[in-house]
């Protein structure tokens, strides 16, 4: 039996891209992330869409990106057991179930109200995990968050959907409201945004992208409270060993060059 969901806007619907990517990864014999809950959600909703033509390459990349952001959150929480975690544009991601923060941590998943309504129908409650239905460009949602605890903030596949001014304002509000912490997200460079025009599997995203693309150093230029502390190039990460042989070889060659690696997915981590 499948569970019908409320109609979502095209931007909200992009949550299926990442969810199905993680679901397909979990079906591989040697998954990168192994998020079986993502697969359960896809099966429960009966989601199918011809727009999403997943290749093994792209689902591995989505899964690897999620894994890197999971690791950022896990490492931060290990150092700060009193932390709060925030997933911006969480979609139907169940990161808190993957990283299993201790009960001393409060975790907040933020997305548009209709997405949060879908989350509430599909994803079981978990103590200390909260869902906030809000437009991230509206400052009010931050008011419900504690200000005095260290915060780890992740955003997986979000930033391209925010206009540059909205991204700058969001980063400023986060660093002004929260005492200290880290924020990590995948970088959408101008190249990534332009490449989306050409790749048939994601060309439909192009009109939804509001960002012209940004460099990993732009957030530091926009916001003096941010310091770039890590640039995680997926080409250089250990999960590449799970890639199929030809792709693995190509990726290992690409990893030799920083410029070529930066054409692929990069997760940037900042401290504030
Ligand atoms: C590509 S999806 C990624 C979802 C999730 N992070 C994941 O990895 O599965 C982008 C998400 O950002 C959300 N989003 C985009 N703009 C937003 C905004 N202004 N406010 C709240 N959520 C937003 C969308 O609703 C969508 O769920």
Structural class category:
alpha/beta
Indicate the radius of gyration in whole angstroms.
18 Å
**Span between termini:** 46 Å
Q: What would CATH call the class?
A: Alpha Beta
**Could you report the average pLDDT, rounded to the nearest whole number?**
93
Strand portion, in percent?
Answer: 5-15%
For the record, the count of structural domains works out to 1
DSSP summary: helix tally = 11
What are the distinct ligands in this entry? S-adenosylmethionine
Kindly report the CATH topology: Rossmann fold
Strand adjacency order, main sheet = 3-2-1-4-5-7-6
**CATH architect. name:** 3-Layer(aba) Sandwich
What's this, in brief?
The protein is an alpha/beta fold.
Structure overview:
With 272 residues, the protein is α/β, with parallel strands linked by helices. It has one domain (10-271): 3-Layer(aba) Sandwich (Rossmann fold), CATH 3.40.50.150. It is built from 11 helices and 7 strands. It has helices at residues 10-13, 15-26, 36-45, 56-79, 95-99, 113-122, 164-177, 190-198, 218-222, 245-255, 258-263, and strands at residues 84-88, 106-111, 129-133, 151-155, 181-186, 227-233, 266-271. Strands 3-2-1-4-5-7-6 form a 7-stranded mixed sheet. Strand 4, helix 7 (164-177) and strand 5 (181-186) form a beta-alpha-beta unit. Helix 2 packs across helix 3 and helix 2 packs across helix 4 (56-79). It is globular and about 50 Å long. The structure holds S-adenosylmethionine (SAM). S-adenosylmethionine (SAM) binds next to helix 1 and helix 2. One of its GO terms (molecular function) is methyltransferase activity. One of its GO terms (biological process) is methylation. Keywords: Methyltransferase, Transferase. This is Class I SAM-dependent methyltransferase. It holds the Pfam family LCM.
């Amino acid at each position: 039996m499948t569970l019908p969901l409320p109609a979502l806007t095209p931007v909200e619907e992009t949550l299926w891209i990442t969810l199905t990517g993680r679901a397909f990864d979990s079906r591989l014999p040697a998954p990168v992330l192994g998020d079986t809950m993502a697969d359960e959600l896809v099966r429960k909703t009966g989601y199918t869409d011809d727009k999403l033509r997943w290749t093994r390459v792209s689902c591995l990349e989505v899964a690897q990106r999620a894994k890197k952001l999971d690791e950022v959150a896990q490492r931060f929480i290990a150092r700060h057991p009193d932390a709060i975690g925030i997933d911006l544009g969480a979609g139907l991601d169940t990161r808190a179930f993957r990283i299993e923060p201790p009960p001393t941590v409060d975790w907040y998943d933020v997305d548009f109200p209709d997405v949060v309504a879908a989350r509430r129908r599909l994803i079981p409650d978990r103590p200390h995990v909260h869902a906030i239905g809000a437009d991230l460009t509206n400052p009010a949602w931050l008011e419900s968050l504690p200000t005095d605890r260290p915060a780890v903030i992740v955003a997986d596949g979000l930033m391209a959907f925010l206009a540059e001014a909205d991204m700058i304002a969001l980063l400023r509000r986060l660093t002004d409201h929260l005492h200290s912490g880290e924020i990590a997200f995948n970088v959408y460079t101008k190249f990534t945004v332009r490449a989306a025009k050409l790749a048939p599997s994601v060309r439909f995203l192009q009109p939804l992208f509001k960002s012209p693309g940004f460099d990993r150093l732009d957030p530091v230029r926009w916001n003096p409270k941010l310091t770039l502390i890590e640039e995680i190039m997926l080409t250089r990460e250990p999960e590449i060993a799970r890639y199929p042989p030809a792709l693995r070889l190509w990726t290992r060659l690409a990893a030799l060059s920083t410029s070529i690696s930066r054409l692929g997915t990069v997760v940037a981590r900042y401290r504030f």
